[in-house]
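To fix ideas, we reproduce below a protein record of this kind.
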Amino acid sequence: MNIFRLFGDLAHLASIFILIQKIQKTRSCRGISFKTQALYALVFMTRYIDLLFRWVSVYNFVMKLFFISSSCHILYIMKYHFRPTHDPSIDTFKIEYLLGPSFFLSLIFNYAFEPTEILWTFSIYLESVAIFPQLFMLQRTGEAETITTHYLAALGLYRALYLPNWIYRYFTEDVVDPIAVTAGLVQTGLYLDFFYVYFTKVLHGQKFELPA
């Protein structure tokens, strides 16, 4: 494993811990999209189904198990512990617009027309757009709590760090994954507006507010 992949995984872990800390500390899931969290849970469950029949390493096993269990835990506490603090009237992005195309693309553009491969490809496409409901909420409200922006920043950093990871693997291992690279570029691109506001306002001690 190269350093870019390691730091990418650490940023991903940090985003999850920040999110859980935000919910537990504020006793609220205000500003968090339940739909985005549900999509991430689906991403991990379809991508890591190989846990049932393939062993790679202890690190690989622990990380995959953590991502599945933590995403399910977040959904549970949002739905049952802090449900009154979630406002479905602003979490209104229609996720079928993401699920349908992701599944359709996974049937056409994949590396093998096999169930596990299609599920893996579906998870890659879906992850690239799973943040849409959360960004849509931000667009509707126009603002976010600082800790929520830190969560989104860590999540965006995780994907951004995978770009140099793929470049590194290309030059050192002669490995290229067109599906993952394309989806990663799309996902990173979705964060550009957010990162601009984050770096120009939040990191300077100002409140996160989108331009009118």
